[in-house]
Amino acid sequence: MSSYEQSHKYQLWYKNLRQNGIRIHGAEELFTKYKSDGDLLFGLFNLDATTPEGHKLLPLCFVKGEVVMVLTCLIDQDTREKYLLLVRQRRICDGSYMYEHPAGMVDGADTPLAVAVREVREETGLDIPFEKIIPLNGQPLYPSSGTSDEAMYFFYTELELSREKIFAYDAVHTGHDHDEFILTAVVPFAQARKLITNSQAQLNIYMYLEAIA
């Protein structure tokens, strides 16, 4: 197992801090979780660092790295009705079932686009070519900037299929290879917006609607 200092996620966080003029005096490892290959999955660190203005940064940071999310829109080729292909699973925030877009963390030398393609395939069974997945933001967006380095990249894809093929992706169990217990859900677009309580997933919808307007 490599040390957290050698991991892609920690080094990316460290590099971004330095590029923004932050003087780092030290970092204390409070908790770290590693993948099976020894690379850092995520970690909690107590950072001793000073801003260019001479102020101390708030110290605690949950280092998670870059994350992708992919709004997956399936369009009935006859009626033009839009459906979202969502994933349903219990989440630790409150233990409830949540409906979300396919998403995942960027590890090692992977690009956000490559991870987007892989996560859609692994979580839904839908194999989408790279050119069909469209980025919605060039620069990363930070959903929890006061407590985490998590950096979000949002994408969307639109596929025209028959109604039969669209609903072939509904209620499919996936994720077991990664200790996830996911059930896919094909939901009419308007209904999906009411089901989703994850703020990033809602933002993905708004960015998609703005992009296609």
TrEMBL record:
CDD domains: NUDIX_ADPRase_Nudt5_UGPPase_Nudt14. InterPro entries: NUDIX_hydrolase-like_dom_sf (IPR015797), NUDIX_hydrolase_dom (IPR000086). It comes from Siphonobacter aquaeclarae. This is GDP-mannose pyrophosphatase. It comes from the Bacteria. The keyword Hydrolase applies. Keywords: Hydrolase. Belongs to the Nudix hydrolase family. NudK subfamily. It catalyses: GDP-alpha-D-mannose + H2O = alpha-D-mannose 1-phosphate + GMP + 2 H(+). GO terms for biological process: nucleoside phosphate metabolic process; ribose phosphate metabolic process. The keyword Hydrolase applies.
